[in-house]
Design a protein that fits this description.
The protein has 9 helices and 2 strands. It is an all-alpha fold and 438 residues long.
């Protein structure tokens, strides 16, 4: 656990911009080429490496293979830097053993299956339960006002979370070993997910009040993707199973893509505007465009067959992209054509977007058609909402409930690492594989 000794909230300034969560401030071992299996990281165990000492010390606590998720990073710039850990320099003559590659693939494949068939369905069930309950209880007779209430509620809650993230994190750190600290952390994930679901429902339902013609959907989809590409935010279109967030000790801290001020209020307000008022609507428009086009053209007369086609498309693409990313990244680590890598990685993310929308659509249809207690529809929705949350809390994956765009990316598309972050079991067991360049 990294302890925090932040100044009080009335101290408006910070000494350096690095105290904010920016991509450049994430702990990073630059560039990469091999896979190293590691042991527990203790500062006392880190010898000074010289030409006569080429072998790195073993450790277990690992640097996240994919640095895209703000939930699983080891470095937290808003926390105290007094206990910064020195990372040893690895020499060019280190040999990567075959057993390390085998261990990597073992965790990689298990995480892939858990993400696809356990965590993602639970997230989908939770969202469906919450979404339909909001449809039931928020003015079901007036679609416009209901959507506006959801949208405004979501934005107010999210803005409060952005502004209060630092005092909430400090309070949690002071009470993390007490019941109040653990209860606060558990309920925070439910609260944040509820805010995102309200935001998405509000935006989606407002869009549903406009045209649903195929050409309008195509135009909206293309415009959204173009803007997200220009903002280098195409990665935020993805969600589970491509993006799994593991619950960590930094429950309340949110990422910053750009640092514009040393004052917290202005920095966090800028983050809120960028993520929730600019990027989030573009993401919702893109999702709705592809989702509704699927409704229009994937066997609309036969829901079961349509569901099966979406399921097949989504999961075939998922497994193909997940497995092919390893040779893809290794190829560009050797050639170092960063522009080509950036372009092709965006293609990967767009294909992942197609995959994740089809997966979510098929699972949502499964919930609607098969998960319903006769004559107890409302109870079914409450059970979906609460049981999925409880299971994910017990599995330390409740942060994934934030949905698409909910895990702030801090993503730099020129950085050579694996494109999709779903290292769940490896994080829980503290077994990491550091990808490095010599």
């Amino acid at each position: 656990m990294l302890s925090s000794s932040m100044p009080s909230e009335d101290e408006d300034y910070l000494t350096t911009p690095d105290h904010f969560l920016t991509p450049s401030s994430e702990l990073n071992i630059s560039p990469m080429i091999g896979i190293v299996d590691s042991d527990v990281l203790h500062t006392d165990d880190l010898p000074t490496l010289s030409s006569n000492h080429p072998t790195p010390p073993p450790y277990q606590t690992y640097l996240n293979l994919s640095t895209s998720s703000s939930e699983t990073s080891l470095a937290r710039p808003l926390l105290n830097n007094k206990n910064d850990i020195e990372i040893p320099v690895y020499h060019q003559d280190i040999q990567i053993q075959k057993s390390n590659s085998y261990s990597f693939m073992k965790y990689f494949l298990v995480d892939m299956l858990l993400s696809a068939f356990v965590i993602t369905p639970l997230v989908n069930i939770h969202w469906r339960g919450a979404w339909d309950l909001l449809d039931v209880f928020i003015l079901p007779s007036d679609a416009l006002i209901s959507a506006l209430i959801s949208l405004i509620t979501g934005l107010i809650l999210l803005y409060s979370i952005y502004l209060l993230q630092n005092p909430l994190q400090n309070f949690y750190e002071q009470h993390q070993k007490k019941l109040i600290g653990q209860t606060m952390a558990r309920f925070s994930t439910l609260f944040i997910a509820f805010a995102y679901i309200n935001q998405w429902r509000g935006l989606w339902n407002l869009l549903d009040l406009t045209s649903n013609q195929w050409y309008h959907l195509v135009i909206e989809l293309i415009i959204s993707i173009v803007f997200l590409l220009s903002m280098k935010s195409i990665y935020n279109l993805n969600s589970a199973p491509f993006l799994i967030s593991v619950d960590t000790e930094t429950h309340f801290l949110m990422g910053s893509k750009y640092t514009i001020s040393n004052k917290r209020y202005w920095q966090y307000t800028f983050d809120f505007i960028l993520y929730e008022l600019v990027e989030a609507p573009l993401i919702v428009v893109a999702w709705r465009g592809l989702y509704n086009l699927s409704d229009l053209y994937i066997y609309p007369e036969n829901k079961s067959f349509s569901m099966g086609i979406s399921f097949l498309i989504g999961y075939v693409l998922f497994f193909a992209l997940i497995l092919f990313q390893i040779p893809f990244v290794q190829c560009f680590i050797k050639t170092k054509h960063e522009i080509v890598y950036s372009i092709l990685s965006n293609v990967f993310h767009l294909l992942a977007f197609v995959s994740v929308v089809q997966i979510w659509r098929s699972l949502w249809m499964v919930c609607e058609q098969y998960i319903d207690i006769p004559n107890y529809h409302h109870i079914t929705l409450w059970l979906c909402y609460l049981l999925a949350y409880i299971v994910l809390i017990c599995g330390f994956a409740a942060c994934t409930l934030n949905g698409p765009g909910g895990s702030k990316d801090n993503y730099i598309d020129s950085r050579l690492n694996l494109l999709f972050q779903f290292d769940y079991l490896a994080v829980l067991l503290k077994v990491n594989f550091v990808v490095m360049e010599f």
